[in-house]
Amino acid sequence: MSAAFSSASPLVEAKSVSKSYPIGGMFKRGRMVQAVRAVDADVARGETVGVVGESGSGKSTLGRLLLGLTPTTEGSVRFDGKPLSSLSREALRRERRRMQIVFQDPFGSLDPRRRVGAQIEDGLAIHGLAPPRDRKARVGALLEKVGLDPSQMLRFPHEFSGGQRQRIGIARALSTAPDFIVADEPVSALDVSIQAQIVQLMADLRSELGLAMLFISHDLSIVRYLCHRIIVMYLGRVMEEGSAQTIFSAPAHPYTRALISATPRLHRAQRTARILLAGDPPSPSNPPSGCVFRTRCVHAIGRCAEIEPQLRPFGDARRVACIRAEEIG
User: Fold this and answer.
1) 103 in a domain, yes or no?
2) Which of 127, 153, 170 is the last residue of a domain?
3) DSSP codes of every residue in 247-280
4) Cα separation of 89 and 96, whole Å?
5) Calpha distance 28→95 (Å, rounded)
6) Confidence of residue 58 (pLDDT cuts 50, 70, 90)
């Protein structure tokens, strides 16, 4: 989000980032799949930005681009003012200490053959953050911080529940004292009751440690609770972005409205009619002309097939990519 929409200078900033993959593999020529197209995004210190959208919308790819784990096809990513693409290997290694990820699968992200304490300790050893004699104590403190008993560091991943394994994953991410964390669907594989506990843990850690966080999710109820700002993605493009309060109280883009209409509400007065989207998202290898959402949008007109909408200011606290936003608002 541009400076006009953010109250603080960004720690992480992406400018017009795109990521394309060749169909059929790296060594075959042909069409390209554009996983992310011309996205601007930033996260300020202490801020949590949510990224929502259906599967295949480019959410996880955007997260990996911001971490520098996936190189951009176009555009640039800056971390604390430094362009990641121009850093030397050693400089990038130093910055990676400050950027971590919490994965979706709390079991698959852990090595089943190693004790969890050793896996948390890896970050301390790789980045030289503690002498060997102090590392066990640091690991114990990290486990305690995420709600686990320090004595559990000698156990293997299969000895823990899904929620406990995700706490271990969070402890591992925290081991390098990061400034920025990408949480990629961190609770989608957990039971609903456990999801609430993990989300609250992440909210508490954010407040305590001043973490910047990109929280990727398809669950808008969680995003509404945890995030300050929201980016809505569809087929690799940003459809709408703005403050969580503004977007949830008065969504402007037809796609955002459909997503929010599917969110469960406890109070009858807050409930809205469900907006059902026709069909499935188009193939990313052959997106529709003009607005990529038009084939599923009830408000689409002829011009929507001719004009690709750009993100532009809509009100005081958001931007929207829809040529009819004012008409249908």
Assistant:
1) no
2) 170
3) HHHS--SHHHHHHHHTS--SSGGG-----PPPS-
4) 10
5) 34
6) very high
> What is d(CA 213, CA 47) in angstroms, rounded to the nearest whole number?
6
- Termini Cα distance of the chain: 22
Closest CA to 211 of 177, 185, 245: 177
The pTM score is 0.91
Task: Name the residue type at position 209.
Answer: L
* 3-state SS, one letter per residue, for 289-301: CCCCCHHHCCCCC
How far apart CA 73 and CA 34 sit, in angstroms, is 9
The distance of Cα 253 from the centroid of its chain, to the nearest Å, equals 20
Take residue 234 and report the two structure tokens written for it.
């569809």
Q: Which amino acid would we find at residue 21?
A: Y
Write the CA distances from 313 to 18, 160, 301, 316, 320, integer angstroms: 21, 47, 22, 7, 7
pLDDT tens sequence across 232-259: 999 999 999 999 999 999 999 999 999 9
Q: Are 322 and 304 in contact (CB under 8 A)?
A: no
Structural contact between residues 35 and 169, judged by C-beta atoms closer than 8 angstroms: no
8 Å CB contact between 212 and 128 = no
Q: Does the pLDDT at position 65 exceed 60?
A: yes
In a domain, 277, yes or no: yes
- 323 and 196 in a single domain? The answer is yes
As a whole number of angstroms, the distance between CA 284 and CA 10 comes to 30
- Domain count of the chain? 2
